């Protein structure tokens, strides 16, 4: 005695089984290698990263891939950045576009992504790991950044004045490279200029302000404060304002935020060395897509930064670098 | 048939159960997601809210976020809510930042703008009412200047209307009554989504939150009051943004960059310069009970807001504040006061607390439970692992977790938690990592070596579930085993019943067949023998007549014997042995003939294909029945078996040149009825072409049926194996 179904019933059952199997396969396919790049900046909100968002979104539309843009709530939230990257890897993202918050903490995550054949592109500042095997770098050209900063300091500094460098943080990707490049170029172009002090990075705006103010009180000949990151630039601007010394102490910073750009227009900031994050973001997406296609993109690509001053901020070229529209145009 | 009926019933029952479950689930979702909605902050039950960052607490009927985290969110409501009006009171706690609400939100995750929806809030840096669109990025409309500025610590009533692609808002300072209005429109808008609370860079409080359905009239009210309807445009081009800011600042007559932290009760940020740094001592020094004459000062980061704990690079200290103070996790403060000699836990009574700056991240130090129990990390922010032993909700709403590690037992407390429901999902025996303040002030014999004061439910991380062989899991495994055994026994009994029914059915068939053949034949023989006996008794019997009757009786016995042999041969298990259907039928025929000769022709047409087991079995049984009938009744001199493989069907034809019969489908004998039953079971067609004196052609045409399954191969293998003798 065995249950026998009619051919029609069997056909229906077969169709249902096939549909179920296809659904399972489809879902599995959706889960694996979905056509979505995960872009993780150091911070989501600052203008610098919004520019990158714009470049990433633009290139993604061009390459017909989707982008998941998410970053930590602050630049020092390393664990949040790791959690976002881990989640993306678990979801078998199409590629990782990453600007690590820490020089070393992301290495394990990057290795894990590469082991899963997920292309990784490091954007902005370099890490102490070798390119290859799916890992590529799209970097800000720190040598050019150093040249721009040194030349500007040489132009604006009065004879006998000294330079204060703030925001030095050995654990922060790109920090030492910037300092080294600036010092080297300053020695080349103006060996007579003395760096009075180099302040290590402060964790908050208030601490950066306090550090800068103390140093400015100690070194009375300082004519330019060169700040290597956003927090220290903000602190230096606040310190100079608090000391009412903006007439004879200029602040030059690396990287841009909306308040620093406003400060630049108002004369509180003398100049900013701005990374072309829009171009770098777009290139990073192209590198991911190229790697997925089996091509071998260049291991390292250097993108030149731009020196933004009150004189050139309204030029078309600078405004293009500072463009922050990340939404697809209708 | 029974099995099919049972399968149908099971399928129907399962479908009904699934439908019922879906109905109940959908109903609960509907009830949960229907409008109007009122918050449940007063009852300390906010299970519907989902946390994305922040340190959320409920107290005095309000929801608080006591962290400086940018973009901390709490979402609730239905993702299908479309046009609605949200109203809440809100307050900025601590220092400069933003506090507001999220509407029509979806796709949320932890991060500054990591959701898809709209945000409406108050921003202290430029004293603006802000509406903007977030989609893992941020675009805002022209900010609207708040009348009377945005005051930190003041309560505002915020009303948000979302109708079609319009978002309108009004914010009123509850104390002064000053109200500002903002209207916002976006093409290709988000049309539905959840509601949420959100803060940016500072703490906040929300209370009396309601949501109700909104209509175009609600939007018209906002539109009438708002100075303009703005679209999401900023930032975008830096130059445009800069011009907008300049215009806004001129209108406000302030510079955003000059904004200082204007905390009510606190001095400005620059006030730290006035503090004498000579008196600042490391917390470590106070912990070592170094005697300090008079007032001392410590500088540190707030690691727990209520009760207040502060930590510097050397350790943490509990602070008794003179009055409730609005500080957030991550605030850096300078505290002046008197240290207390409290043993291992440093503590001081504050006389002055000054906010220096904010958003300073304090990272918990990962230590073992034994290190924590040593007292070296008293009042410090630590991370400790342990196994959850039990939990208990105390009358004041505090949840107490009893933990143990390899060598220590300790307690963890969650006070004013956002919701204790996540704890319900954690099983006893789970390995947890807890982050919080290492406290010794309430250590007792029952509580263990030390206590961990958690800042929020986010401080509980489940590392792994309870071990596989915990008592609970063993009990569950035993229960599951018993259920499985019961199901197995039930299935076994069902199969035995089906088997018994099959045997009874076959017995019935055999009984009918014996009645139709053997019993009838023996009755005929008996009738003839009785006639002979009666003739002989009467003494009038003619020799020829007696001999004639005996001949008939002998013929009947011979025929009956032949029928019985054929039937027995057909029933033998080996009858269907062999893979070829025609060969099997030929063997069956020869067995029935028992050495007699009957010309047989076997014809095979088309390309042979494998037949499914049900089809092959049915064809064999029908063929055997037809051969039996030919041998019994037709007196045929030749029989032809033709097996034809067609593209979509297989047909078997049994043709004989015997005497034929009158075929009436309504009054067929048992054998023909059995053929029809078998044909029906495989969805085949049966045709019988016969007439008296014209022989008979019986043809069955069947689809090939399903392909061989693993089960069929097993059955075929069983056929191939030697049969067990009974």
Oligomer type: heterodimer
Output the CATH topology of the largest domain in chain A. Answer: Rossmann fold
Which residues of chain A form runs of ≥5 with pLDDT under 50?
A: 27-32
Question: Into which percent range does the helicity of residues of chain A fall?
Answer: 40-55%
How would you characterize the overall build of this protein?
- The complex is a heterodimer of chains A (330) and B (726).
- Chain A folds into two domains: 34-140 and 276-304, Response regulator (Rossmann fold); 143-255, Rossmann fold, CATH 3.40.50.2300.
- Chain A has eleven helices and twelve strands.
- Chain A has helices at residues 7-31, 47-63, 78-90, 107-115, 142-156, 175-189, 205-218, 230-242, 258-266, 277-292, 316-321, and strands at 36-40, 66-69, 95-98, 120-124, 135-140, 162-168, 194-200, 222-227, 250-254, 271-274, 300-303, 306-309.
- In chain A, the strands form two sheets. Chain A has a six-stranded parallel beta sheet, sandwiched between helices. Chain A has a six-stranded mixed beta sheet with strand order 7-6-8-9-10-12, with helices on both faces.
- The termini of chain A are far apart.
- Chain B is an alpha+beta fold and 726 residues long.
- In chain B, strands 1, 3, 4, 6, 12, 13, 14, 16 and 17 form a nine-stranded mixed beta sheet that branches. In chain B, strands 2, 5, 7, 8, 9, 10, 11 and 15 form an eight-stranded antiparallel beta sheet that branches.
- In chain B, helix 8 (543-571) runs antiparallel to helix 10, helix 9 (581-593) packs parallel to helix 10 and helix 10 (613-634) packs antiparallel against helix 11 (670-681).
- Chain B is built from twelve helices and 34 strands.
- Chain B is elongated.
- In chain B, strand 23, helix 5 and strand 24 form a beta-alpha-beta unit.
- Chain B folds into six domains: 1-33; 37-258, Exo-inulinase, domain 1 (Jelly Rolls, Sandwich), CATH 2.60.120; 269-357, OB fold (Dihydrolipoamide Acetyltransferase, E2P); 365-464, Nucleic acid-binding proteins (OB fold (Dihydrolipoamide Acetyltransferase, E2P), Beta Barrel); 468-571; 573-726, Heat Shock Protein 90, CATH 3.30.565.10.
- Chains A and B meet through helix 2, helix 3, helix 7, helix 8 and helix 9 of A and helix 1, strand 5, helix 3 and helix 7 of B.
